[in-house]
Amino acid sequence: MAFFSDRRRRLQLAAAALGLACGASAAAQAATQWVMGYYVAYQRDLYPPQAIDWSGLTHIVMGRLKANADGTLALDFDWDATNGPALAKDIAQRAHAAGKKAILMLGGAGEGAKIRSAVLNHRAAFVANLVATMKSLGYDGIDLDWEDDIDWAKFQSFVSDLRAAAPTAILTAPMGTINLNYQSVEPHVAAIAAKLDRLSIMSYAPATAWVGSGWLSWFNAPLAGEKPTTPVSIASTLQRYVAAGVPKAKLAMGTSFYAICYTGGVTGPNQSTENGVAIRGGDNDFPLSKFYGKNGVYNGSYRFWSAAASEPYLSLPTAESHGCRYVSYEDEAALLAKGAFSRQNGYGGIIVWTINQGYVTSHSRPNFLTEALRKGFIAPNATQTVGVSVMQGDSFLSPGAQKRFDALVTGTTDRTVSWSLVETGCGAIDGAGRYTAPSTQKICTVRAKSVADPTKTATAKVTVSTAQWTPSFSVSRSGTWWVEVLAKDASVASMSVRWPNGTNSPLSLQYRQGGTNYPVFAANYEFPDAGGTYPFLAVSTNDRTVESKLKVPACAHGADGICH
To answer: pTM for this structure?
Structure first.
């Protein structure tokens, strides 16, 4: 959904000339730590409700209600009018059963004009509809996500009226980061915060990273380290909100469960972003579930830590599928650092956009990120459990072929493993995970054992065979941007398209056909109206790859962009 991809574009003026500003800080106050995780219906398949780790949350924020200009509400939750509300009720019931609070999200980027009309012209009815919907769906509060086309004076009046109508409801609102070079906190914010339970900061990309105009490469959710050439951090933004009159205990930082990366040969932070460098990945496109998942980009051999920003990053020897060598992401160490900072400085916790994107199904501890949130913010003395997975998963190799296996180890600072083979006569694997298949066809098992906790292991099956993989595909096109590829082989796990400039773009799995279980992938990219032949790369569940040149049909369309 484009509205979610653009949700936090808080630095649309970031290309302005760089100029200096100063901030202030306040004495730390005691604060209860909130961990508010956003859950959105359109990502429900990434994180089924029954899989939610409630121990790592204090509040869940269900996205989203949309305002209509007349003060009524759209309740489809970006799904439909039946399933959306049903899912919202289910999430609230599960939250309450786990002893947690449930909040409804209102708005989001691009929804400001309708919220503005509802507030300016139908405020009493709008407030009444919000309160009634909150009660009918079984929620404890509302998150006021008015991000654009804001009338700040009316926002203040709206919050006051909503508080009067629902004096015991939990009211929260997300705000933008502050660029230390030229931005300041909007004067109405302190009065708005006075009526809220939490004022959260959307301190993650795209609000924290930019290219050109003097910016150096930076991080997705930097805790600190701001300077004129990387002028945004969580710490500096929070300090400026405190200086503007918002109590520390009401302020929550933000992070995201997706990664961003830089093209153009950038290999780490604090490098030039001029001359065509671009930021790729982000919301929906580069979820941490994919980053850490089977055949994901994560590789501990290339992990580095920025002491200045308290953030990890990858510096890869070759570019990944987005064309990037520098990848910024969140891990357990970064979340623990954020929790310690919030607790030690009297702030009020963290929001996460979105928890759906942090569930790593291929890992033995799929909720390891929310487990880190629990330890960082809620229960600092909690003991973490070690988890292990083999990044490559089950694999297919020809006899005598070689492959490097890598392990993801969580729940400990010691991320090392020992490698072994379960069966005899299965070739050899060294201490770095470099495997050589036997000369004969066989099914073998590679095993990774945690050094920190030898009781925790993970395995991957290796099929050593001379068999060829020859799946077939068909391509259809319904619009100028929308192309679907049917893979006529149920073992196809992922697909991407290679563009003429050599970069790859992933396709999204839409659904699997009934009966055959064949996957259908979609590409929301700007293929030319004339169509053309493009290389598409398919990867199987056991890591076989095949490249097929597929013809994208031409599209004769009208103003609606629909192919006729």
So the answer is: 0.88
What does the alpha-carbon distance between residue 362 and residue 291 come to, in Å, rounded to a whole number? 11
- Beta-carbon contacts of 457 under 8 Å, excluding residues fewer than 6 positions away, are 388, 447, 448, 449, 450
Judge whether 112 lies within some domain: yes
Instruction: Compute the residue count for the chain.
Output: 564
Amino acid identity, position 410: T
- In terms of Cβ atoms closer than 10 Å to its own Cβ (0-12, 13-18, 19+), residue 425 is exposed
My answer on whether 107 and 148 are in the same domain is: yes
DSSP per residue over 109-150, as a string? TT-HHHHHHHHHHHHHHHHHHHHHHHHHTT-SEEEEE--SS-
User: Hunting for tokens 């830590």 — which residue is that?
Assistant: 305
Look up the CATH number of the domain holding residue 55. 3.20.20.80
**Which amino acid does the sequence have at 103?**
I
Answer yes or no: do 348 and 477 share one domain: no
How far is it, in rounded angstroms, from Cα 359 to Cα 367? Answer: 6
Q: Do 48 and 136 sit in the same domain of this protein?
A: yes
Residue range 193-242, pLDDT digits in tens: 999 999 999 999 999 999 999 999 999 999 999 999 999 999 999 999 99
Rounded to 5 degrees, φ, ψ at 547 are -110, 130
* CATH number of the domain within which 436 lies: 2.60.40.1080
In a shared domain, residues 439 and 495: no
Is 297 among the domain residues? Answer: no
Hey, how many other C-beta atoms are within 10 angstroms of the C-beta on 248?
21
Q: Are residues 138 and 218 in the same domain?
A: yes
Tokens, residue 402: 């070689």
The rounded distance, in Å, linking the Cα atoms of 438 and 422 is 14
3-state secondary structure of 163: helix
List the Cα angle 288/304/290 in 5-degree steps.
Answer: 15
Q: Are residues 154 and 115 in the same domain?
A: yes
Residues 489, 536: one domain?
A: yes
In 164-302 the beta strands, taken as DSSP E runs, fall at 170-175, 198-201, 251-256, 260-262, 279-281
The residue ranking higher by pLDDT, 73 or 526, is: 73
pLDDT in tens, 283-303: 999 999 999 999 999 999 999
Q: CA distances (Å), 322 to each of 262, 265, 544, in order? A: 9, 12, 20
Q: Is residue 372 part of a domain?
A: yes
10: three-class secondary structure by DSSP: coil
Strands of 222-323, DSSP E: 251-256, 260-262, 279-281, 303-306, 311-315
Q: Cα(111)–Cα(69) distance, rounded to whole angstroms?
A: 10
Q: pLDDT tens digit string along 350-365?
A: 999 999 999 999 999 9
Q: Does residue 72 belong to any structural domain of this protein? A: yes
Domain count within the chain: 3
Residue 252 in tokens = 């929550």
Range of the domain at 12: 2-255+330-378
Give the gyration radius of the chain's Cα atoms.
Answer: 24
